[in-house]
């Protein structure tokens, strides 16, 4: 039996493609479970195929799957429906199975309105989907009422079986890294919080289960062997068990994995010792759900955190050289100019070095969505409209689109205008063993001001001056490669070529074999008409296309036609490889 697992596309384009490009971890776990039990499984990441149906048809024609399983998050449900129709067009006998958080909460909706959907796996899917595959393989005519955690049509009517008990021991699940390559990892399943905008309380029943430190780090190590060095740890709250987190960090360090990773936490679930271990183990960013500076709004979200805890967490996180990112949600019931002022005041207190501001969405499975249905009399049939989501203000006559968009504009303008000041006020713990990591942190941040997102944001002022300050602070801690390179490039941009040459030469003194530093130095020397020196810089990299390009230019400027022709021929050979 051939099985294809699909992550469908979304209707709307994203400013940041990475927000939707990663296949959910659950799909990898299901794929691993199936492969470990002898089934052939392919996986299609179709997040960007909304305008390329021919590519989907090509995959379906090549793979000829008997069963196609879809990971439905809700906003990608129409992509799932569209592809399910394609599946049935290619092979009417193929079985379509929807799963994931979106399918779990709308199982009846899908089975009522979309005949292309044959089954829905509700909740945790590994065991339910495996048992369903075995049932389909046996080609039994009786409906699979014995399989917990699924839904289907029984006598033409949507029917669900009993809820499945969650897997008691997460380490008993086959390890996805043995079968797939990916960057997103999870230590836990579930979250103890009860936030009204989140589907986790209903999906996981506010129960939390944990992998062991050995399982988690082993999976990370196996992915590292495949060449993956950057990881997103995607748990709702990675730091729930302090000793477990520290044990994981110690194992990462002992194994010399040399990786970089980011995580999500709550402001009341971190402390200094934990943060120190996380930083030493490669953590560079922690995202915290702040949601609002208004206690009234946070209470409405059931976000049970205090201003003091928020300030403490952001201060501690940055002090250990970890980027503290803040999530804010605006446009809640009762949002006013005053509550936005309170959010801006909190932003100025916590000084986040990254912040994301979302408009409040209503999703099935959340308490706010249930409240909307009660007060409006609406049903799940509202999702028959071809839209991704529903913004809260669209359901509240007391709020206008213009007002809510103005709230967002004020938040973003206020935040980005303050960002250079936040960077200037960074304080780091004075622990000598952390100095190289402090340098790394400061140079990473500097690069966002010189060449990254902040540099391209017109709301952020004094970007280059801020970058120079951060690069210089970085080098005061440690001869960081990125800081030498970034500062040399900024000096080039400012036409301070002598300064650029000096700092790049200093960097090469510490990093003798750095191609990037030599290329940057050659560029600055050429701007100063010091082409023979630039040529000496570049001669040592005859197999690097960019170095050879610069050598062609050097020879041309120096009138060395034979050398120019030699390097031009070499460049052509390199480009043909």
From TrEMBL:
One of its GO terms (molecular function) is cobalamin binding. Its cofactor is [4Fe-4S] cluster. It comes from the Bacteria. Residues 8-143 form the B12-binding domain. It holds the Pfam family Radical_SAM. Transmembrane segments: none annotated. The keyword Heme does not apply. GO terms for cellular component: cytosol. Keywords: Iron, Iron-sulfur, Metal-binding, S-adenosyl-L-methionine. Residues 177-410 form the Radical SAM core domain. This is Uncharacterized protein.
